[in-house]
Amino acid sequence: MKKLLFFLLLPILSQAQLPKEFQKQLDESGLKFEMPIGYKATPVKANGDLQYSFAIVNADKSMEVRYSIFPMKPLLEHYRKSKDNPNETMIDPNKLYIGINMSNGLNMTGGNEPEIGSFPTKAVKKEFNADWGGSSFFAFNCEFGKGWKFGQAVYLHKIDTADVIVTFMSNDKVKHSDLMDAAFHSLTFK
Length: 190
Fold this sequence. Notes:
This protein is of the alpha+beta class.
């Protein structure tokens, strides 16, 4: 009975340990996070390339995962107001994810644009409950990637909700994909 209770409470306990800012972003963005088995939180490192609010690392420290969440609510409110103002022009926030992803790729690589491959629409909806998703693999050439050789950014967009960048970091190009498996679905839209 004690084991059953432990396993029932495990998801709640793992959520309770999340930093307040990260939990706030999850709540504002309709996201849920599940700590992957074998991972633990690691400190967020200030950098000038990409803001992120939470990071995890696997037991042997061969893979770090960083979570960047951009809630759309404030932008959407401003956008709706701008439509009534003839002196203001604003791009629909639901179209910004394309530019955000391209800009992020340039930041991560020191100016080399990595190819962003889109996920199939049905798959991204089923696996992440997102409206669009894609990824890019690159060699780091930036402060954000210090200590790591390779990165793979997974981009997710949910209409009128949020944009997300999950960055998977390793030093082994051959094993990188396999190392991503445990944490690949750790962040999804509700």
